[in-house]
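Q: what does this look like with adenosine monophosphate bound?
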Amino acid sequence: MKSIFTRIIEREIPSDIVYEQDNIIVIKDIAPKAKTHLLIIPKKEIPSINEIQKEDSDLIAELFFVAKKMAYDLNIQQGYQLKFHVWALWGQEVMHLHLHLLSNI
Ligand code: AMP
């Protein structure tokens, strides 16, 4: 079964998409926990950090470069948080890897 984020990527369900490139999409979190709350999502459906493979190295690095780009584009580069939830006991709800970018600037 496709993840909810794959369904967003494939435009099956609507979302507020703020940036997209060949292998990554960035959307606004539907239930923001800060003034800015973005989700930086690889299009490849990797469940979580627990399942990343060496072959994903460039993609994982790219998530952080996209995070930096978003921070500068939104002019919040002076202060923000990046985080992954990993599996259910630390609150991961959507089993499709995503990097949270939060800021209150
Ligand atoms: P996590 O707890 O790390 O799995 O975070 C999943 C995040 O996805 C939560 O912050 C949700 O608010 C968010 N979320 C769930 N469904 C959607 C959706 N359809 N569009 C945007 N964000 C969503």
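Residues 58 and 81 are 21 Å apart (CA to CA). Residues 4, 15, 27, 29-31, 39, 85, 91-94 surround adenosine monophosphate (CB under 6 Å).
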